[in-house]
Amino acid sequence: MDAASLAQFETLCNQFYNPPNEQAQRQAHEVLTPLLNGIDSVPQLQYVLANSSNQQALVFASTALTKIATANWTAVTESQREDMKNFMLNYLFQNCEALQNSAPYAVSFLVRFLCRIVKLSWLEGPQHQTIVSDVQKFLSASTRHWILGLDIYVQLTADMQPTVGPGMSRFRRTALSFRDIALPQIFTTAVDILTQMYEGKLNISDKMEEFKLVKKVLQLAYNCLSFDFMGTIPDETSEDQTTVMVPHNWTVLKDNVIPKLFFQLYDSSCKNGWKDCAIYCLQCLVLLSSLRRSFFQDEKEKTALLESMMEGTAHLISNKVGLSDPQCLHETCRLIGRINTSSQFRELKQVPSFEMWLEQVYGFTIDAIKNWQVLPNSKHYLLQFWAQLVNPIINDKDRTPGFHSKLEDYIYTITVSYIDSRLFLADMAARGDDSMDDEGFEDALQDEVLRGEQLEVIAQLARLNYQKTAQHVLELFAGCTSEANINEHKLAWLVYIMGALVGGNTGNSSSMRAQQQQQSGGSQPLHVVTKVNLSVINGEIAGRVFALMSQTDANTSLPPESKEPSNLETLELSYLYFMEQFRKVYIGEHARQLSANAPSSSVLSRGDVSMGSSENPSRVVQERVCTVLGLKDEDAILGILIKKIVTNLQHRYTLESVLKRTLAYFYELAAGVNIVHSVDKMSPHLIISGKLLLKNDTVRHLMANHASSTLGFLHAGPKYGRYRTQYYATLGKLLFMECRDGTTSTSALETFNAFMMPQYQVLERLWQAANTGDGSALRSEQLRLPLIGLCRDLRGICQACVSHDMYKRYTILFNWLVDNPKQPQNCKITVFSAALNFYWDDPEVTTPLLKFVAEFVYNKAQRINFDQNSPNGILLFREASKILVAYSQRILQREQSHLPVYKDIYHEKYKGIGCVLELFSNALHGNYTNFGVFELYNDNSLSMSLSLALKLCMSIPISDLMSYLKCLKPFFMFLELATRNHAKLVCEVAESREQLAGLIRALEEGLTSFDSSVCMQCCASIDNLCTFFYDIGHTGVGSSVGGGTAATAEDVARITQGLLVPGGAVDAELRRVLNLMLQLIMAGEFNSTWSISRPILALILM
User: Fold this and answer.
1) Strand partners, 685
2) How many degrees, rounded to 5, is the angle at CA 679 between CA 676 and CA 694?
3) Radius of gyration, CA atoms only, the chain
4) I need a labelling partner for 1067 at 20 to 30 A (CA). Which of 205, 258, 453, 1016 fits?
5) What would the DSSP string read from start to end of 323-344?
6) Where does the pLDDT of residue 498 fall: very low under 50, low under 70, confident under 90, or very high at 90 and above?
7) Mind listing the pLDDT tens digit for each residue in 896-909?
8) Residue 889: which of 826, 955, 824 has the closest Cα?
9) How is the chain split into domains, by residue range?
């Protein structure tokens, strides 16, 4: 590259980063992109760095060099690596001043390239691990060099952090080596500079340079403290990793001067207006408060650190230092929360300033709660701080009446203040207050995650003063329901809160444990709630909510469909949340009561024996609810829950989220199992809540009229169709429970047939249409929706065929569909293959149909277990084969024809192919069919199905295969099964070397997938193919290789001379696979060495 070429390059970079128009940017992109493609571009890019001062040119050149080095590191020679590193160090040192003046933005990109070279070469020898001494000359020169040297450390410590992705294992080893060799020295450098600042020994006249220096050294300290010392690669989106695992030799952190240093720097940063520096100070303090307990030799060292933290935060809070900034406020809340989570209550109490600190934190918390503009994430840390104190306070054996009473008052005041603040925000949201949008607030009622966090905190806080808190909520509820204009937002919040209270305070309440302590001699806490009193409170709460729910359900008009959640939808979701929390308490206790009333059982309780109470809390809850609602029968409470489910299915189905939650709740009721411990039995026994439902009149009426026109979602078109499957999966569980409890098999069959009558009528209509003329009558709008609904219904019922008597359940459904096994062509199940002939191009029909058949042929938990003399297994496989053939032939014909391209290739092609491959894989893997029968009697069901399935696989481009991996995962499962037992047929269907090489290439791509199941299946498929190729070349004619039938002389000749020609496409692809596998093992990027070792052996032997 000469001067003219450099000028042209700079012009192109300017057009690329600052384009005058889109066309100029596109032209610059086309010219510059080839420079990223190989190692040959390195000299040109280095020439740009050495001779250009243009900022855009430097950014592009350094970015390109970083990408090239990362992607082609193995192609870079030892001398080139050392030359690049030395070039960058000298370049940065010599051009430090010029870069800061002319191209400050490019500096970070140049430093990043240097750090990437150091990272990639780190494990290649001690000569590549001298970065600390290399940077020392920067720290000994001018202030700007000092800042640049710190910038190198900052980016290096960040880049050395191990991350998930390619090369993960190698980079993890790099990070651990860097931790031991260089990180301690780098951190010592940061601490030394911070100490000089703390002692006032640094005098920098230029305030901007001082700011940059302070920011860089604080950022470096943060990177060092937050380094992944154990190489666990924690999830950065969560706060679960709360312990900093610093090495033992970082003894400088045991000095309590270090926290004071950061607090002082925080003060000075706030005074100077250095917001970024202040935030880094607080973040470093958060990490210091999280040091692992084993790092300290004794409790004195830990106490000294805690005292420094408490004094510093108390000063910060009392003087409101920097708290006007939302980010500083957030980090302060994090710091307070982390001090608590990283220490035990016992350790906190030992700090002399603990009570003073708690008082300051209490006032800070109250102010934050009252100020609605404080973001919820910031408040969450403060609320969690108090919530995590609840259990230690209750279980504290060394109780100080005055201190603990004050703590309980603090927590009660915080609890009710926070509840009041939720209602205040709900009122603002209902009014549509624009100030909430201006502040970037999200309505927690519409954010499930945020709402769940807030309700969990309320439930935890309320446990300490449950009775008072519940009374306060009931008063708010009464006031809200008595208003002339009821605010449904506030009501929804109150119902959610009441649900959280009930769900978070069951019979294992902390208050009861406190009472047990008091009975055993401990001092009595201020607020004690007995189990019976707790049950009275819960009964009162439940009665109020159920009464309000009945009033709401009186409005049976269908709510309009809307993209935005309505007030009614919000309120209905809160009812369902309350019902779910109530179910956890009531259903379990009610089941115990039924068991206790049985002749063989004694009175059951959960804690009553130890509590010395003879009154059943479940009965107290029921009696209180009955009193509030005016009910006579305690079983009517279960009827309330069921009635609400039916009401939602009838009148609330247009609210899709309500319909979804309702069906999920119904399923939990039907499928729930409670472990009941009896006084007179040593071992626990199970109570199935579904049996409780079957005794309910509303459920029995629903079972008898499950397809009623009053259930609107069943007849509202395909939009709600997917919910039919879950609905019938729930009813199917109840149905088979009822069938199992039948006195004879005949009565069970009669019960099943009576239940299936609506589906039978639809099936009969479809059967008549399929057998009228050429069957084209099936393709009519009058039969389309019933067909879709039938497939979804039957899939749900089939899903319910899983239990300890699963064989009988599945057999009943199988006999219902295969009703004439001696004349298979006259069985009702043939309707589905006939329908596919006419609906193959309609994904709204094919998807539910194929999913049903895939579920029907799936031998889940060995539920398909026909007698040895039964032909049912063969009949089932042949029907699956017919459906695959009917669908695959049409799809492949469309691929070969000139029909219009797919408008939505996912729904119109790949989703169906994924379903049909899953269907066929389930049939092949079902272990209920002897496949040798088909060839013995010249039945081509197996061979044609395999052939078409393989052709479907070959019709999928590899790029699309990995792009739509979620729906095409059955692709790899099918190839594994096909190559395991039918490898010869795979080679026959692959008519050319290129087609077989294409399948192997797809397996090669699957090896690099992040889905471990796909990787394992690809390993197995390659092993199967290579074993087949090896055996056929060594065992010769007549040997039974690869499963299936024996290979003939013609097979051997065609495979060895046609497909496996040395240097051919298949041979080249297998070599690529072997190379990839060896690279994966060397880089440590494969999870199962055993799985990958088997195909490697076969590939080597070939």
Assistant:
1) 676
2) 35
3) 36
4) 1016
5) TTSHHHHHHHHHHHHHHHHTS-
6) very high
7) 876 667 888 999 99
8) 955
9) 242-352, 388-560+575-656
